[in-house]
Design goal:
By secondary structure, this protein is mainly α. The chain has 2 domains: 100 residues, no CATH class; 108 residues, no CATH class. 54% of the residues lie in helices and 3% in strands. The protein contains 11 helices and 2 strands. A two-stranded antiparallel sheet has the order 1-2. It is globular and about 50 Å long.
Amino acid sequence: MLKTSVLEFPAGDVLHDPLCFTYEVADGLPDVPALPETLLALELQLQENSVDLRGFTETVLSDLGATIQILRLAGQEYEIAEDYPSRIEDCISDLGLTSCFQAVLKGTLVSVGQQRADFELWTHSRKIANHFRVLAEKMPGPVSPDQAYIAGLLHAIGALPDALGWQWDDMPGNNILSALRLAERWRLPRYVKDFFREILMPGYNPHWSELLATAHRLAGPSWARCPVQGASLRSFA
């Protein structure tokens, strides 16, 4: 358990130290890009002599791509679902700030058009994630606010292959099924996979459906290409 949210670095260039142990994403799928402003914010934090782990984590969680990249690293580190830390902050602490930053750096935006599409998807995902967290705080249930936020942030990942132009041979035609396949391929936390199973098979865990429907209702008109927007879900009263 972390006793402080501030990590002290030894003297030297931690961003470019070749001796720093790093992890590699090796699940066979392309890297997911982070927004340029996220990369800049993380780099500036890492240039300080000490880093506020909580602040670093919040910057990561504000960005869909950055969050996915770190969860992919964690999925390789924690092969057994029961060993998965419940908070991404603990994942970052275990994996190391430098390794996490290097993973986030790997994704690249290849065109202005892709940047626009990413911004729309990233903005929508963050808006829904914030609603998920608030709803989970107001209506306690089987899902913690932190878990709700991450599930909300990832709720539209089934649209990533199309949005990023991936050539994924076994990609399902159904975007929701694609999301579950990605969650399995990336070894995302069990609760994320349960979330997508509920969307595919309503009744598996109804609390997720209610969170999703209510969050979209509260968000109002949003990203028209959201793959779950047309799903038949029952919101909270």
